[in-house]
Amino acid sequence: MAAPERKNRLLVITIIAALTLSFWGLYYLSTDSYRQRSEVNRAPERQTATDSGGKTAAPQTDRLVLKRDERIDVGRTSLIYKGIEDSKIVVDLYLLDLDPKQGYLKKIEEDKAEEGFLLGPVTYRLVSANGGYLALKIVSMTRTP
User: Fold this and answer.
1) Which residue range(s) make up the domain with 27?
2) I need a surface site. Which of 44, 62, 88, 132 has the fewest CB within 10 A?
3) 40 and 73 in one domain?
């Protein structure tokens, strides 16, 4: 008679332990600290492609097309095309090594841009520009230590 009673107690304790662990696990996975840690772990995956902030990863070719007000990374710089003013191409340059949140407004004359111009460590040549898009060719990219 003692054996079946002991088995019932063991079964009840096992069921309670399993339910407790299940609820604890669900609670832990729903906390903000777990979500923040999982976001940090997934951040490098998102940076290799386009993320929700309109930021595009570095190009794989020597051609680059910037949409107006869209940020794109090239090497250790970021560019945002702002449009054309008085036949000058307006670009915000972000030097990621120096200060990734500080943009430097650059105005480049269209006729000089066809010959080539330097933005940060990257030399570009203008392919075409209009109000909505800027097409550039990457001529050279110097590496900084």
Assistant:
1) 2-47
2) 44
3) no
Q: Which residues of the chain have pLDDT under 70?
A: 1-2, 34-60, 144-145
The DSSP line for the chain is -HHHHHHHHHHHHHHHHHHHHHHHHHHHHTSHHHHHHHHHHHHHHHHTS--TTSEEPPPSSSEEEEEBT-EEEETTEEEEEEEEETTEEEEEEEETTT-TT-EEEEEEEHHHHTT-EEETTEEEEEEEE-SSEEEEEEEEE----
Rounded to whole angstroms, the Cα distance separating 83 from 73 reads 18
From residue 51, alpha-carbon distances to 48, 63, 73, 75 in Å are 9, 21, 12, 17
Quick check: pTM over 0.70?
no
